[in-house]
Amino acid sequence: MYISQNAAQSIVEEIGREINEHINFMDQEGYIVASTDKARLGTLHTGARRIIEEKLPELYITEEMENSTTKKGINLPITIRDEIVGVVGITGDKERVAGYGNIVRRMTEIMVEDSRLKDHRKYDRRVRYRFIEEWIGRSGAFYDRGFVERGGQIGIDIMKPRRAMVIRFVRYTELSSTQEGQRRLEEMESAVRHYAEREEILYLREPPRQICLLEACSDDKMRRTAENIQKLLRDKYGERVVIGIDSVKEGSIHINQICKEAERAAEAGGLADIIFYKELYVELFLRDVTAEAQVEYLNRLFPGMGDEELDACMKLIEVFIEEDGSISRMADRLFMHKNTIQYKLKKMEALNGRDIRKPVGAAVYYMALQFYRTLNHAAEIGQRSFS
User: What is the pTM of this model?
Assistant: First the structure.
C-alpha cells in the first residue's frame, strides 16, 4: 500500500468531518482499507477495482448497481505522479455528493502525498539511526571502505572529526513509569531531535540517553549548545537534564571513545548540569564504588544523623570547600556569625574525630560530599533510598 492504514484512516476521518459524509479509501487492489463506516473495512469495492483496471476518471454507483459491498456514491482515482495509488469514495445520492468529488479527490491526493513524505522521512531517519548506532558501537577508528561509503550514501562523513555530548533526563525513571510520563519524554526527545536537525547535529535516541555528535568545535561552542538544549527543555517542559561532554576539543574520528567520555561525564550528573569529561577527577571512580559502600561511609562519618541535619552538614562542607576554608567568606555566604560556623565545624569533628580544617580531614569530608551528591542524584533519577 502507498501509505499506512493508520494514515489512510486519519485522512478519511478528517475529510468526513469536513463534509459530513461517509468516506472510503480503497487500496490499489480495490479493497477498503480505511472508512468512516467501520463495517466496510476489509471488503472489496468492485467499483474501485473497475476504476483501477479501466483507468476511469470517476465512477458513480447508482442504486441499481449497489450490492452487499458496494454502495451508491461517487468514486474517484487518487493519482500521485501519474500513478493510481488508490480510490476515494463518497457514499450518498449523486445530487448531494457529486459537488464534493474533485475537491475531495484533490484533498486526498495532497494528504496522501504529505503522509508519504512523512513516512519517507521517518524511514530515512531510521536508516540514519541504525547507522549511527553501529558507528558508535565500533571500537577504534578503523573503518572499512564499505562502511565509509555507507555513511556517505546517507550524508554522514565518518572520517570528519567530531565531538560528543550525552543528554540524560534527571527524572527519566519516574517519567517512564507512567503512560503520561512516556508521552512527555517522547515530546522532549522530539524537541531535542528537531533542535539537532536544525543545527545539523547528528542525533541518536538511545534510551535513557540521547547522543549528539557535532563537528569539531571549541569547548565554548559545546557549552553553548548544551545550554541551548537545557533552556529549551526547561522553558517548555520545566524539566532538568544533565549533559556530559567529551574532552577532545579538536574532535576525533574515534566516535566510540568520545561517546564513552561524554557518557561517563553525564553519569557524574548532580555535581553540575553540564560536565566536561576533563573536569572529572574523583568522579571517575565514583560509579565503581557501590551505593551500599557510599551509604556506609556516610553513616560512619555522621552516625545517627537525620536527613535534615545531614543536608545542613553537606551545605557547610560544600561552602567550606568553595571558599577555601575562609570562615569570613563562609559567614557572608551562609548569613551566619563566624563563631556559629566555628561551633558547627567543631560539632562535626566531635562526631568522628575528623577536622575539616586539616588536609586529611578535608579529603575525608570532600569524599563524603561527592558520595552524598552521587546518592542524591541516584535517588532523583531512580528513586533509590540511601538512608
Answer: 0.57
